[in-house]
Amino acid sequence: MIWIVSFVVFIMLASALAVLLLPNLIAAVAASSVVSLSLAVLFALMKAPDVAMTEAAIGAGLSSLLLAMALRRLGLWQLDKEQESK
Amino acid sequence: MTMPGIEVVFYTGAIGLIVIGMAGVLMVKNVFRMLLALVLLEAGASLLLILSGFRETGVAPILLSGHAAGQLMNDPVPQALVLTAIVIGVGIQALALALILRIKHRYHSLDMGEIREQMEHDIAVNSGVVSPASAQSPEPGGHHHG
Predict the structure, then answer these.
(1) Is A50 in contact with B23 (Cβ distance < 8 A)?
(2) pLDDT in tens, B75-124
(3) Is residue A61 situated within a structural domain?
(4) Model confidence over B17-32: pLDDT tens digits?
(5) Which sign, positive or negative, has the C-alpha torsion B113, B115, B121, B126?
(6) For position B63, what pLDDT does the model report?
(7) Assigned domain for B143 exists
(8) How far apart are the first and last CA of chain A?
(9) Domain of A25?
(10) Which domain holds residue B86?
(11) Is residue A79 a part of any domain in this protein?
């Protein structure tokens, strides 16, 4: 049990760092979606199933959809160019 | 060697998320990435709240007919609060995205320093401290006199 929790926490913190450090904004949005999903797994392991369901549906699904659509409207939807602070 | 309790690992995750999110909000230059860091901070806060009602031997707070008498539940009150906080968090995120879209439309930039400069110039112009043509580029399309 504790090893599973440590593994999920490690993945969560690593992708939280990736959100701040990745140069590509699409990759950063994907990393924040990974943070939300592993947070949902942690909620399920903490015996809070309703919160886990909500976090997986809204935090990982709806929120990354919103971010990705806003990214497209901002014109930053570029896969391989540096577009920081454009 | 004694293993740390499972709560220690959860606390590490929550406090780590809060620290990373706060560092991002304070240090990042891009406004969009600042919003992402705000989302991280919010996730860490909700994890910490759920953790306040966590029992290591507790069961999920669902009442069943065959519930054992001695079994303790996790506290359902923080869970209900966090459920609300998650939904409100997405609302805040949508509002912030709308503001970012307006900023991009108005200032054609997402960099914090540039936005601040242009905004201060706009405020100065609107309050009459600087005349509109003086501070920025020399007259649009014109030449200097002599």
Answers:
(1) no
(2) 889 999 999 999 999 999 999 999 999 999 998 888 888 999 998 999 99
(3) yes
(4) 999 999 999 999 999 9
(5) negative
(6) 79
(7) no
(8) 45
(9) 2-73
(10) 7-56+75-126
(11) no
In a domain, A78, yes or no: no
For A28-86, write each residue's pLDDT tens digit.
999 999 999 999 999 999 989 999 999 999 988 999 999 999 999 988 777 765 544 44
Pairwise CA distance, residues B27 & B29, whole Å: 7
- Nearest beta carbon to residue A55 from set B54, B58, B86: B86
Taking an 8 Å cut-off on Cβ atoms, the answer to whether A67 and B97 are in contact is: yes
Give the contacts of A37 (CB within 8 A, at least 6 positions apart).
Answer: A56, A60
Q: Residue B15: which CATH number?
A: 1.10.287.3510
Two tokens at B115? 């936005």
* Total number of domains in chain B: 1
Q: Which of A20, A49, A76 lies closest to B37 in CB terms?
A: A20
Total domains in chain A come to 1
Residue B67's SS3 state is coil
CB contact under 8 A, A5 and B9: yes
Q: Both ends of chain B: CA-CA distance in Å?
A: 84
pLDDT confidence of residue B67: 64
